[in-house]
Amino acid sequence: MVNVRCEILIQRPRTVVAEFATDPANAPTWYANIGTATHRGGPPLGVGTLVDFGARFMGRELNYTYEFVRWVPDTTLVMRTAQGPFPMQTTYTFSDEGTGTRMSLTNTGEPAGFSKIAGFLMTPMMRRAMSKDLLKLKTLLESGAAEH
After folding, report:
1. 121: pLDDT confidence band, cut at 50, 70 and 90?
2. Looking at the domain assignment, is residue 94 inside a domain?
3. How far apart are CA 23 and CA 147, in angstroms?
4. What pLDDT digit, counting tens, does each position of 30-88 carry?
5. Are 95 and 13 a contacting pair, CB within 8 Å?
6. Closest listed residue to residue 103, CA positions, set 95, 111, 115
7. Per-residue confidence band for 110, with pLDDT thresholds at 50, 70 and 90
8. Do the domain assignments include residue 99?
C-alpha cells in the first residue's frame, strides 16, 4: 500500500487555488509527470466527471482514467482510478490559512504488476514528485502566471 501526503501554503485566495488546481486542463502545467489531461464530455466538473491522463512515471508511459468521486468546490476533490498497473485515489483539499490557502495532495493506492515489484521505491519517489509539483503550482499561482 502506498499512502503519500504533501501540503503547501500558497499565498492566493482559496477559490483561485482550488479552481486552477482542480481543472484537468491545467494538470500538465503544474504536474511534471503528466503530459496530457482530457476531460471527457464538457463542463461542468463534478461527481462522475471522467478525465483521461497520459503520464510518465519511473520511466514508463501510463495512460489512465480518473473519475471524480467526491466534489466540494473550493474545498475537496477526490478522484479514483481502478484500471491500470496502479489503482490510485488522489485527494486535494483546500483550506484558508491567513491570507493564503493550505493545499494538501494525497495519493493512496495498491501497486500491481511492475509497480508492485517497484513498490518500495514508490513512496519516496512519489513524495519527491508531489512536493515538486506543489512547489511549481505555488510558483505559478503566486507569480500570476497561471491566471485565467
Report:
1. confident
2. yes
3. 13
4. 999 999 999 987 778 899 999 999 988 767 788 889 999 999 999 999 999 966 667 88
5. no
6. 95
7. confident
8. yes
CATH number of the domain bearing residue 129: 3.30.530.20
**DSSP-H helix ranges across the chain:** 14-22, 27-30, 114-117, 119-143
58 CB contacts (<8 Å, ≥6 apart)?
115, 118, 121, 122, 125
- What residues are paired with 53 via a beta bridge? 37, 64
Domain of residue 79: give its range.
Answer: 2-143
> What 3-state class would DSSP assign to 20?
helix
pTM: 0.90
Write down the pLDDT at residue 118: 59
3-class SS at 146?
A: coil
Smallest CA-to-CA distance from 102 within 31, 5, 13 is with 13
